[in-house]
């Protein structure tokens, strides 16, 4: 069954960004609100490609806005990231409309969308707004060197490989690979980032860079969960569109998302007892 969604948009400096809205506004209180970014190696992908993950996030208890960010074929780094940051700020301003007053805000993405989500977490930290409750990175593309064992095992990284070509198109020029927002795995300053849930799969080419980033976050004092799912999952292609029947890992992902929302959600302080 196809996931249910509604059309919406988020206003950015580059104009309105089309998006899909998943989940239901709570009748009272607030639920996690997520800006979700689909995969596609920076040069492809559509809102339909992100539909399965967005629906799983919504089924885990969140309201999800999956954004159709600009692709690198038209504008290289940092255009897509800047536009996505504008969308994140707009979403924060509309959180009461989408998910309830004081809804905790998250970023999430898979593959190239995971790269953008990690970059957004850094930007929000550095600009001290909007406040993020967490980041969900699903087999994110984080290292343009393409030299990990998991990529070599997938016979990826050579000329003509979609990830190599995607990185080249996204960066535009080699020196941009040194920018932490473009290649988060190379960042030497990860302190102060929001809690992270990093998920990959044993048979995914991005497995090793996902694990390395989770380790780096943890060393920097960031509350981090890493989960490597058993194969076969056929990731990242296996998460790029909603299948006709649920995948074997879908239930695990919903559980991971739900638990992460519970552990990362900011707790409201109880008022101090009155002094008589």
UniProtKB/TrEMBL annotation:
Tell me which domain of life the UniProt entry assigns to the organism this sequence originates from.
Bacteria
Alpha/beta hydrolase fold-3 domain: residues covered: 34-234
Q: One Pfam annotation, family name?
A: Abhydrolase_3
What Gene Ontology molecular function terms does this protein carry? hydrolase activity
Lyase listed as a keyword: no
List UniProt keywords, sorted A-Z: Hydrolase
Q: Which PANTHER family match?
A: AB HYDROLASE SUPERFAMILY PROTEIN C4A8.06C (PTHR48081), ALPHA_BETA HYDROLASE FOLD-3 DOMAIN-CONTAINING PROTEIN-RELATED (PTHR48081:SF8)
What is the protein's name according to its record?
Answer: Alpha/beta hydrolase fold-3 domain protein
Q: Which organism is it from?
A: Xanthobacter autotrophicus (strain ATCC BAA-1158 / Py2)
**Which taxonomic lineage does the organism of this UniProt entry have?**
Bacteria, Pseudomonadati, Pseudomonadota, Alphaproteobacteria, Hyphomicrobiales
């Amino acid at each position: 069954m196809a996931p249910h969604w509604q059309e919406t948009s988020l206003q950015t400096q580059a104009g309105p960004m089309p998006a899909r809205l998943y989940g239901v506004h709570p009748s009272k209180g607030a639920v996690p609100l997520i800006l979700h970014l689909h995969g596609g190696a920076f040069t492809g992908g559509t809102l339909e490609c992100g539909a399965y993950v967005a629906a799983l996030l919504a089924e885990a208890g969140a309201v999800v806005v999956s954004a159709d960010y600009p692709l690198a074929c038209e504008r290289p780094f940092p255009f897509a990231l800047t536009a996505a940051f504008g969308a994140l700020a707009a979403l924060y301003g509309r959180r009461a409309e989408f998910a309830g007053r004081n809804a905790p805000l998250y970023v999430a993405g898979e593959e190239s969308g995971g790269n953008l989500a990690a970059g957004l977490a850094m930007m929000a930290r550095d600009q001290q707004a909007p406040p993020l409750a967490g980041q969900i990175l699903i087999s994110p593309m984080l290292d343009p060197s393409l030299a990990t064992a998991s990529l070599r095992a997938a016979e990826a990284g050579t000329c003509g490989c979609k990830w190599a070509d995607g990185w080249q198109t996204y960066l535009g020029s080699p020196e941009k690979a040194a920018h932490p927002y473009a290649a988060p795995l190379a960042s030497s300053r990860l302190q102060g980032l929001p809690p992270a849930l990093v998920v990959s799969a044993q048979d995914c080419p991005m497995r090793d860079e996902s694990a390395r980033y989770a380790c780096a976050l943890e060393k920097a004092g960031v509350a981090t969960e890493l989960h490597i799912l058993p194969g076969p999952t056929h990731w990242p292609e296996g998460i790029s569109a909603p299948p006709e029947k649920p995948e074997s890992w879908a239930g695990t992902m919903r559980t991971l998302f739900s638990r992460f929302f519970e552990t990362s959600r900011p707790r409201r302080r109880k008022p101090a007892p009155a002094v008589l």
